[in-house]
Amino acid sequence: MLGSDDTSMAQLEVIIGLEVHAQMSTKTKMFCGCDNDAFGKAPNTTVCPVCMGHPGTLPVPNGEAVKKAIKASLAIGCTVNLRSHFDRKHYFYPDLPSGFQISQYDFPLSVKGKVAYDIVDGSGKITAQKSCGITRLHMENDAGKLTHRGSSTLCDYNRAGTPLMEIVTEPDLHSAEEAVAFAQALRRILIAVDASEADMFKGMMRFDASISLREKGTNTLNPRSEIKNLNSFKSLEKALQYEEKRLRQLWEETGGPLKGNITVGWQDDEEKTRMLRDKENADDYRYFPEPDIPPLVFTAKDIEDLREELPVLPGELKQKYMESGLDEKQAMQLLDQPELRTIFDAVAAKSDAKRASSLVLTQLLGFLNAAEKTVAQGPDAEAMLELLAAIDAKTISGNAGKDVLQKMVTTGKSPKAIIAAEGMGQISDTSAIEKLVTEAIAKNPKAIESYKTGKQAALGAIVGWVMKESKGQADPAMVNEILRKKVL
User: Fold this and answer.
1) Quick one: which of 255, 251, 233, 231 has its CA closest to 243?
2) How many domains does the chain have?
3) In a domain, 374, yes or no
4) pLDDT per residue of the chain (488 residues) written in tens, 0 to 9
5) Both 26 and 134 in a single domain?
6) Same structural domain for residues 199 and 103?
7) Would you list the DSSP string of 195-231?
8) Is there a domain that residue 321 lies in?
């Protein structure tokens, strides 16, 4: 293996480009009416003659998928071509029933975009702000899924025909860290514009990563190694780190880069790549225009109408959260968890960011983590607003509110139901609190004596006694006010 002080190796620069495949969040597939949600379904149950490539069937483009792809294009700064068309990309594999994929090649949906991303350290602090160019975004249908069992291979065609966006970057990335940071930023954008759920656990976002080396100071793009079908940020990072080390060692042994483009596969269990084949080129796929689908033609107004539908994008949203007082880590929590963001925004709208941060990002997440529950399994925005209203109306105290929230998480009950069942209503009756304060003064003469000699903190013991006797239900502000009147 190479030493970290190897001078010749230190002069090599890493060049990385990504092809990102994201499943579009439509109800039906790209060219037929089959259910687009195949996750967890019995194999080969969400299929039809069209997505199975039967002779004589005609594909019909999914209008909603086209709109989502256009919105994604606009969100990543691409120019949408007013005229584009589909092509047939030929390759023969068991999970591709028709023997070709309907994709886009020389006239893609959109071109020339850019995505900004941040490099952060372990504490969440931004150490660098960078951007990666986007070559193109095009649409295509997915293949099926192969499951290998011993010497046999099973084909599940449920995924065949799923609408995909393929986003191809420029070779602008120079480390595994940069590639992951870019991919995470892109994922947030696709989710924000509702183009894709990008659920990596369900295989809705996958990467092909191309990596090569060149001598620093040169602009040469040397033959590259393409790593296929990476399905998590962790595998993307580890695969690129491994392949970089391998290519550096190969350069040292041979005195130069790869002799030609290659395709490798990442082995998660072994944490290394395995040679698959020489890299294909466009000629190998025998592209030609899809004869069964007319060109897609848009007007400038069509594109601008969709641009107006775009929500606030993650970069702007992050800036907004940080300006409201949240730190980098808290802002990223909200960007990465839309369900949590919905709750936070609702609470902040009725209070402020600081209070929403305490109630949602500290208390709610703390109780959810302790109960080993997800945000989706906890109280929704409506329940959190009901809790906030109960605290603001002084039905319960802030401290009692924490107990109510914990029970909301563990039981799933509403704040009102918990407050009623537990008898947690706050005591705001002046005569009742005055009686408790009088009793507290009588029971704690030493604390009163200390207070009268100048020890302000001594009153805390009296207030604590009242709160304990009232089981936390006395209004703390009223307790303090009545107590001070009585001892002055």
Assistant:
1) 251
2) 3
3) yes
4) 344 444 445 599 999 999 999 999 999 999 999 999 988 899 999 999 999 999 999 999 999 999 999 999 999 999 999 999 999 999 888 899 999 999 999 999 999 999 999 998 877 788 999 999 999 999 999 999 999 899 999 999 999 999 999 999 999 999 999 999 999 999 999 999 999 999 999 999 999 999 999 999 999 999 999 999 899 999 999 999 999 999 999 999 999 999 999 999 999 889 999 988 776 676 788 999 999 999 999 999 999 999 999 999 999 999 999 999 998 889 989 998 989 999 999 999 999 999 999 999 999 999 999 999 999 999 999 999 999 999 998 788 788 899 999 999 999 999 999 988 876 655 556 777 777 778 877 877 777 777 777 676 767 777 777 777 766 667 677 777 777 777 66
5) yes
6) yes
7) S----GGGT-EEEEEEEEEEETT-------EEEEEE-
8) no
**314 is a domain residue:** no
Q: Is 113 left (phi over 0), alpha (psi -120 to 50) or beta?
A: beta
Residues 266, 360: one domain? no
Instruction: Name the percent of the chain in helix, strand, coil, to the closest 5.
Output: 40, 20, 35
Q: What is 7-34 written as a DSSP string?
A: HHHHTEEEEEEEEEEEE---SB-SSSSS
At 69, the amino acid letter reads A
Range of the domain at 481: 430-487
Residues 137 and 220 in one domain: yes
How is residue 140 written in tokens?
Answer: 């295509």
Domain identity same for 438 and 367 = no
- Asked whether residue 18 is domain-assigned, the answer is yes
Same-domain check for residues 15 and 122: yes
Cβ within 8 Å of residue 344, ≥6 positions away: 334, 356, 357, 360, 361
Record the pTM.
0.82
Are 298 and 369 within one domain? no
* Amino acid found at 373: K
The alpha carbon torsion through 335, 341, 342, 344 (nearest 10 deg) reads -150
